[in-house]
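Issue 218. Parser rejects a valid record. Input:
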Amino acid sequence: MIAQIRGQLIQKSPGLVIVEANGVGFQVYVSLNTFYDLPEVEQPVRVYTYTHVREDVLQLYGFSTLLEKEIFQILIGVSGIGPKLALNILSGISAPLLIRSLGSGDLNRLLSIPGVGRKMAERMILDLQEKVQKLESRVSLPPKSHLPRDEMTEDIVSALVNLGYKKAQAESAAENILQQRPGIKLEEALKESLRVLSKS
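Output the parser choked on:
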C-alpha cells in the first residue's frame, strides 16, 4: 500500500493531480480542500495517500493532511459511502468542521454538503458520532463563527439560489470556498461554488 508520495507536482486541477516521484507520475484524486492546499505546478509536494484496490482497478486518493486522510478512511467505513463520495464530502466541508458536525449530531450542517441526503446524514451520525468524538480531543477545531456573513457570501448565496440551488447547499459551498481562499474575487468564488455544487 502506498501511504504517501513525495515528489514534484506536475499537473494540478480540481479533483485530480499528478505527482512525479523517481521518474514515475502518480495520478491522485484529491478533495477541493487538498487542491487549494497544494503548491503551484513544478513545486515539491508531499501527499498522504490511500490506495483503493477493486478487482483490476487501483486508484490513489491524496490528502494534504493526515487528519483529512483519517476522516476519509472513517467515512468509507460507512455503508453506502465509497471513496468518490467520501472525497466529495470532504470537498464540501473541511475535516475539522466535519468532525464537529458529526460529533454534535448537526444534521442540518451535514445536509448542506452536496451529495448527502437525509438518510445518509443520519447514518453518518449514527455510525461515526462516537468515533469522531474520540478524535475531537486530538485536533484544533475552528470556532463556530469561523466565517463572517459578509456581503460577498450573501451575494454568492443569492446568485446560487437564483440558479435553483437550495439555500443551505449554497451557503455551505460559498463558506467553504471563502474559507479556503481568502481574498478571492466574487466572480471566481461564484465559479468555484458552482463547480462544487455541480458535482453533487
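Fixed in the parser; the record now loads. The beta strands are 4-13, 16-21, 24-30, 44-54, 57-63.
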